[in-house]
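pasting for ref
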Amino acid sequence: MPKPVAETGAANSGRTRTDRRRETTPQRLRDAARVVFERDGFHTARLSDISTEAKVGSGTLYNYYRSKHDLLHEVMKDVTAELTAIAADHVSAQQDPVRRIEEVNRIYIEAFRRNARVLQAVYQARDEDERLKAQWSEVADHFQSRVTRAIAVWQAAGLAYADLDPRHTAHALSLMVERVVMAWSYEGVEYDAETLIDTLNKIWVRSLGLSRRGAEGDGARRAEER
């Protein structure tokens, strides 16, 4: 009697149900780790809680990851990829700088909020693990370097105050956003989302001396008049 097609296919592939389960185990552990880190924070989270959440034995977890730091490093890879994809395109003087700031800040703040608890866990553990410290720095450097270049472009085009140091200004503005969103996300400080985003954007725009394209005058002329 011929074997069913499903059985024949499984036999031909040489893969068993155990093989397929083994292939998905690392992802299941990473998903479970994210749940536990978001719920409990880094220092309170336990590997046994993660294995329970993933529905695997502790021995299985140790076959793939040796510590909470290993797991958090893996979870943070996806967060880093999401955050560093923001504002990755080239800044042009032909773009409206105010609109650019409004778009990027909103995307960044919303992405930070989605990943706030993972970022909090990394913040808690980054001094204990060089990989986590490097991931945190990668996200910060991504924004700070792009804002630095954007300010320099806007200054060269006569759109932003010429007497600002691009790097120092970029660090001050980006760290302001990071710190406020951290307080909002996991320190119990309550803000209205739209009011906060609008306020941060106004601080950026006014600090740089920018104006919306098409408006009468521009930041450079205002700087010259002072």
